[in-house]
Amino acid sequence: MAGGRPTIRLKLNKEQRGELQRMAEARKTPQAEAKRAQAVLLSAEGLDDKEVGKRVGLSNTSAGKWRKRYAQDGIGGLTDAPRSGPPRTISDEKVAEVLRLTLETKPVQGTHWSTRRMAAKAGISNERVSVIWRTFGLAPHRSESFQLSTDPHFVEKVRDVVGLYMSPPNNALVLSLDEKSQCQALERSQPILPMLPGGAPERASHDYFRHGTTTLFAAMDVKTGEVFAQCKPRHRQKEFLEFLRHIERTTPAHLAIHVVADNYATHKTSAVRQWLLRHPRWHLHFIPTHSSWLNQVERFFAKITLEVIRRGSFTSVPHLRKSILDYIGAHNKDPKPFVWTATAERIFEKIEKFCGKLT
């Protein structure tokens, strides 16, 4: 044994030795803790603190410290105890004041608080304000909009439409129909630069040339996901009826057609009602006012806007129209429906819960 102060030899059983070896060799063990486990194992072999420290890279004082810690507390004594951190410098009263000001007041000539304005008002640093807001989940810079339907027949209409989605009638098509008006043919003033390796995103100039607009009429089969579509220059009763006739010609005549639509005036004109009377297989189901989320084709409009229109550059309206219809044609080769899972009762429960937050 090497010279030095005599060391009380640790006695380890097979289980303790295996536990220490796993701690010393595991990849996820912090390096400092792995050294401590090695030091204890060497001490158990009879080496003194000086020799143990030399072999594992610790001072002889540290080697003795961890040997004693293990003898007293076991393997748990080799880990670092959590540190308490510096003492708090902001009182509970100050935290409560910041919360009250954030939730109950607004800054002079402003719509919402910033960290700097709140810091000046409360007399603390803006970093402390940020910590308090994060702790309590407050984000004054964020704002969301909402619209509650005032339709007197809201409940009946929701049950009707959701029933069509979740339990469609036999021998019938259920179509979610709407118009996406004012699709602009915008041509970027300079060529779009492609994405490059290394993190450079696609780049487009902020200015553009306007070449006109088109309106997309679309009806999605909620069972299959197939989309019937036409692009029209205007958004009137005439164009709407032309689109209904297009669907009439391209669908099997023996099937009933149930159409989910919004309350746009074009859908309720006298001419439209007369056409529906002459075509008894057609049935219109109107969603409640301010409830576009209930019309499934709106989700398809969001998809086509994201993937085709928003980042495109179109030299003319025909160019835009072709891009839209080509996208829908490709979609219809392998259509995928949006699966509706929310029952009417679940919808009512969520609305009731939201209204409870507003009162």
- Strand residue percentage: 5-15%
CATH class descriptor name of the largest domain? Alpha Beta
| Gross geometry | elongated
The profile of the biggest β sheet is: 5 strands, mixed
- Number of helical stretches of at least 4 residues: 13
Counting structural domains, the number is 3
The name of the CATH topology of the largest domain is: Nucleotidyltransferase, domain 5
Distance between the termini: 80 Å
Proportion of helical residues: 40-55%
CATH architecture of the largest domain: 2-Layer Sandwich
Rounded radius of gyration (Å): 35 Å
Q: Pick out the low-confidence regions.
A: none
Q: Please give the order of strands in the largest beta sheet.
A: 3-2-1-4-5
Order of helices and strands: HHHHHHHHEEEHEHEHHH
Care to describe what's here?
The protein is an alpha/beta fold. α1 (14-25) runs antiparallel to α2, α2 crosses α4 and α3 (49-56) crosses α4. The protein has a five-stranded mixed sheet. Helices cover 45% and strands 13% of the residues. The chain is elongated. It folds into three domains: 14-78, Arc Repressor Mutant, subunit A (Orthogonal Bundle), CATH 1.10.10; 92-135; 154-355, Ribonuclease H-like superfamily/Ribonuclease H (Nucleotidyltransferase, domain 5, 2-Layer Sandwich), CATH 3.30.420. The longest helix is centred in the last third of the chain and has 17 residues, at 317-333.
